[in-house]
Design goal:
Helix content is 22%, strand content 19%. The protein has eight helices and 15 strands. Strand 5 and strand 6 form a beta hairpin. Helix 1 runs parallel beside helix 7.
Length: 318
């Protein structure tokens, strides 16, 4: 390993940076273990796994895992979503007769504030997309391969939430810290749940709670995420989707010369769809009340046939 990385504020020792050679070796191992076919890791979602996930519903309670869409600039959101009312015009709303309220919406899908899903065409690395698809398939007109249209019928499966701040006894992890594979295994043990084939793995780092209590900061340069080596846990358990309340990648990057190593390893090597900047603050109390950290998870991205991602509102049904 190379030079020391940032030291977490919880007193744990600093984690060493990952060298280019170590990253390349990890990438090759993960790519060899990826699911076959053009569906990426959603191939692990079978009719049998969906039927089993429906059996997770015990309380009949539904909760969103999306954050409210931001329409005002912030340090982590310099280009917020544009939402405006386009009708009724002027004073027409107060007039008699029929009128319609209409609006228009636009969004920077891959920003650092709003909940979104990353398609498999989102990460271009060494001239290719996942599975060796040429990067040239992503054009100014849109992506002709591996776009969000790949999951147009939705993503439905067993969701598992692993709460790492709860494990460590803190309200949130501080920016620059990492979630390791050991953290994920320890959270499983503490919550009496095990991540399995086809599961939609959701990892809470407390990003949303920190933002709501302390205010937004420049998350592009300082945030919590998985350590790249933790992606081996995802491959071993054959998860179908990864979601987090942050970006899923740490900043600054713990890998020499690679800015978003977890995105490269997860999306490009393994074929995982990512969900970034979710919000688990309403889900955690429900899981604690039910003493269950697994549930039916339903994800329905927009029908954007050539897009690299989509706004998303994942639902947990307990």
């Amino acid at each position: 390993m190379g030079a020391a990385g940032n030291e977490p504020d919880d007193g744990r020792p600093p984690r060493p940076l990952q060298s280019r050679a170590e990253f390349a070796a990890l990438y090759r191992r993960l790519a060899r273990s990826a699911a076959d076919g053009s569906r990426g890791a959603t191939a692990f979602l079978t009719p049998e796994s969906v039927r089993a996930a429906v059996g997770e519903v015990r309380l009949g309670r539904t909760v969103t895992m999306a954050a409210p869409i931001e329409t005002r600039p912030a340090p982590d959101n310099p280009h917020p979503a544009d939402h405006r009312l386009t009708g009724p015009p002027g004073a027409a709303a107060g007039e008699s007769g029929l009128h319609f309220a209409t609006d228009r919406f636009g969004m920077n899908v891959h920003g650092d504030a709003d909940s979104h899903l990353d398609a498999l065409c989102h990460v271009l690395y060494d001239g290719t997309l996942h599975g060796g698809v040429p990067a040239s398939t992503v054009t100014e007109e849109g992506a002709t391969a591996l776009s969000v249209d790949l999951v147009r019928n939705g993503i439905v499966g067993r969701g598992v939430l692993l709460d790492v701040p709860r494990l460590r006894g803190v309200p949130w992890l501080e920016p620059g810290d990492h979630v390791t594979a050991d953290d994920l295994r320890a959270a499983e043990a503490a919550q009496r749940v095990r991540v399995g084939t086809g599961d939609i793995l959701l990892v809470r780092v407390g990003h949303r709670r920190r933002r709501e209590e302390l205010g937004p900061w420049d998350a592009a340069h300082s945030r919590v995420g998985l350590h790249p080596e933790a992606v081996e846990f995802l491959a071993e358990r054959r998860v179908s989707v990864l979601g987090g309340d942050g970006n899923n990648d740490t900043a600054p990057s713990p890998t020499e010369g690679v800015g978003f190593p977890v995105h490269v390893l997860g999306i490009h090597a393994l074929g995982l769809h990512f969900m970034d900047y979710l919000r688990f603050e309403d889900l955690v109390p429900l899981c604690e009340e039910a003493d269950r950290w697994s549930f039916l998870c339903v994800v329905a991205p927009l029908r954007l046939p050539a897009a690299t991602g989509s706004p998303v509102n994942p639902l947990a049904i307990l």
